[in-house]
Design a protein that fits this description.
Radius of gyration: 18 Å
Number of domains: 1
Distance between the termini: 43 Å
Order of helices and strands: HHH
Length: 82
């Protein structure tokens, strides 16, 4: 009985988590930061796309020393993680 209850809760949580995908908004459109990404792209390309769409928009105006490029994004990864 206890195992069945755990299985039902896990299934419900999986369904709820699948409905709240951060890459899609409630109206069905992709978020701009994740637009054009697919699972087949290498992780570096996907990370650079997100950095370009989310971070560089502001950095180009306010923090020009920290505009991300493909060359410097790995060096600043620890700062981004914080």
């Amino acid at each position: 009985m206890n195992t069945l209850a755990k299985l039902i809760v896990a299934t419900c949580l999986a369904i709820i988590a699948g409905q709240n995908d951060p890459r899609t908004s409630s109206d069905g459109y992709e978020g701009l930061a994740y637009a054009g990404l697919s699972k087949e792209d290498p992780i570096e390309e996907r990370a650079f796309t997100v950095l370009t769409n989310k971070c560089n928009v502001c950095h180009e105006k306010r923090n020009r020393r920290r505009v991300f490029t493909e060359d410097n994004m790995n060096g600043w990864s620890n700062d981004v993680y914080k």
